[in-house]
RNA methyltransferase (Polaribacter filamentus), 486 residues
Amino acid sequence: MSISKSQLKIITSLSQKKYRQNHQLFIAEGLKVVNELLNSSFKIDTLFATDDFQTDISLDKIIRISDKDLQKISNLKAPNKVLGLFVIPDEKPLQKNGLTIVLDTINDPGNLGTIIRLCDWFGVSQLLCSAETVDCYNQKVVQASMGSLTRISIKYIDIEIYLKETNLPTFIADMDGENVYKSALPKEAILIMGNEANGVSDKIKTLIKNKISIPRFGETQETESLNVATATAILLSEFKRSY
Amino acid sequence: MSISKSQLKIITSLSQKKYRQNHQLFIAEGLKVVNELLNSSFKIDTLFATDDFQTDISLDKIIRISDKDLQKISNLKAPNKVLGLFVIPDEKPLQKNGLTIVLDTINDPGNLGTIIRLCDWFGVSQLLCSAETVDCYNQKVVQASMGSLTRISIKYIDIEIYLKETNLPTFIADMDGENVYKSALPKEAILIMGNEANGVSDKIKTLIKNKISIPRFGETQETESLNVATATAILLSEFKRSY
């Protein structure tokens, strides 16, 4: 079989968020990520796979295609046997316990993907994003999250409204904050990470008292601030290490 | 002025390590990175800049070029006013004190660049790399390191020989290692980080007793291991937080 023109049109359109929302579909590629999605609660729509892709799922959802066709629809430098269209799941209800990460306008898909992986590693079950944050079904995010997308509840929210309705202690990562190594960090909390260039926006900052920072040990003051995914890694480690 | 054919040939050749070594030159691009290099002990060879690039350094080393010419020689999606050829500095003598990071076959330029930035942030003054590790003057490394390259002593070494000649306590990041949060970490030490896919090589592993790991807090065992740059961030934070 090969790919029909209408299928090709849908696949191409899914690089844009508005078409992902219209179709309620997103793309995942490659053995590792596709297999993680197939073995999760996510629903498959269609799988385009070359003959050497093996799986146990029902065959009416697999369309066998040539390597050449896979190359045509793939966004990877080295296409890897399979491209799947998956159904965007309903958002889960808001969780009011545990440790929640809130992202204020994260733009880079690689950063969001890395943060999703980190949430999975550190047992953070809920990730809340401002509406301006990059879409988690953007294909670069899906690939960078390496399957962790299936295990984290991700919701897009209005941060100001959310903060007004929560009782959990809330922390902001901020260059001028208190030394995180000397801060008492509760087991259940909200941690807000800000935009790559500008940090957490001023309107959110004014709402929150607790600001924490990772101290700089290098001698010079010229060192660029830590990347937001790297900072998230260190702060999550600090929140979890005592419990 | 414009770029001569021989200059164009050199610039293009510097994407390959052997030509960087022949010419003892590497490329850095964009305002931020070039300015950090100009304000360091690194020596400038030639600067190709558009008219809107301003600097105080002596003019005989600047060649003014058009936006179109900059686009032609740039490797960035959005060229930013200047591309510089800098002289690869002599390696500094081996330091025998402090905290040293050793990289065993790190392949990804972005990972090496991020680790260089982390060394700068955490005051690690020496980074040692196996000969198989990606070259730190690879342009993607230079750009990802955001100027931190100028503040870290980076040497390419034979790890086995180095380990035989050091008396410092040595640690390996290893999935099966002791929980790092429960480990006593000395102020002066060597920390070895391994390849993205395979970790630290077996021949090195057998030489070292102390293996440390970052525990997984998530419930499932399916989570992909942490990215090497992310793991380096967390381990450096652990080594430094008590001192």
About this structure: Residues 165 and 180 of chain B are 25 Å apart (CA to CA).
